[in-house]
Amino acid sequence: MGLKRPTAGAGEAAAQTITLSMSAMWDTVRAAMREAEAAALEPTQR
Questions:
Q1: Alpha-carbon distance values, 10 to 6, 18, 30, 44 (Å)
Q2: Under DSSP, is residue 6 helix (H, G, I), strand (E, B) or coil?
Q3: Which has the least CB within 10 A, 30, 31, 33, 43?
Q4: pLDDT tens-digit profile of 13-31?
Q5: What angle do CA 16, 11, 14 make, to 5 degrees?
Q6: Which pLDDT score, from 0 to 100, does residue 9 have?
Q7: Phi, psi of 14 (to 5 degrees)
Q8: Nearest CA to 46 among 25, 14, 38?
Q9: Each residue of 12-36: b (16+ CB within 10 Å) or e?
């Protein structure tokens, strides 16, 4: 068949961009969860 895939580079770039945005989103989610957990624990530590 010998089909060339000119979109392979674009697809890889899109996948990398999506992966980066996903990991950034999860970093934000984890940070928010840590802050919520710390806020929930604060009253019991005082």
A1: 8, 12, 30, 52
A2: coil
A3: 43
A4: 888 999 999 999 999 999 9
A5: 35
A6: 79
A7: -65, -40
A8: 38
A9: eeeeeeeeeeeeeeeeeeeeeeeee
